[in-house]
Fold:
Amino acid sequence: MESGAGKHWTEEEVKALLSVWSEKNIRKQLHGTLRNKGIFIYIAKRLQELGVCRDWKQCRAKYKNLKYEYRTVKYAHNSGDVTKTMKFFHDLDAILRYEPVPQLAAEENGRCSATETQPNTSPTTESAQ
Structure:
């Protein structure tokens, strides 16, 4: 299955991305990691094994778009607007609802700041370079 940069993601490709994304170690590495190129290189390789030919940039773009669309629909639902929907909402809800919520930690000067626990990175994460 050939997929170029300008091609839309098929339903099967999105399902494959969601299946890889739903893995616990992938979710941990993606949450709170700013430099995540290595994670998406790994995801692209995993997708290739599943027959989806997408590069890491395409995977990251689709991940960001799905996450944005999910949060938009989730916010609408929380505001009482249940008319806004998206495909794969329930799959994304299962993946994203378990993201750790930032906890408030007291600083020395008495102010509070948001802190998050950083997940352990695996050898597949070459994003720090």
User: Anything to note?
Assistant: Residues 11-97 form one domain. The mean pLDDT is 78.
